[in-house]
Sequence to fold (118 residues):
Amino acid sequence: QVRLVEFGGGSVTPGGSLRLSCAAIGQPFNAATMAWYHQAPGKERKLVASITSGGRSDYEGSAEGRFTITRDNRRNTMWLQMNSLKPEDTGVYYCKAWRSMTPMFTYWGQGTQVNVSS
Fold:
């Protein structure tokens, strides 16, 4: 069964750090673009950062300069290092993997909860 599994969420105080992991299970994902999304309480899911199969990364909004997305294709794993966390970073973080060319696919993980509060 092909799936994405996130872990590494938790509770931190403002200014703290967390490292999220996303493990791809069931098939190689080296040809997929991968990304992290954030869903704050009561709000829609939004893109945080993405990384191509070749390792090119892009960041959205306030993630720029605070978060770092990386991946290791041999380990089928992606990470999100989150530093200088703010209360507005609270929410569920999801990883996504997709390929827009044949064979096309899109997979989402189940999400991991991050709480930033004092």
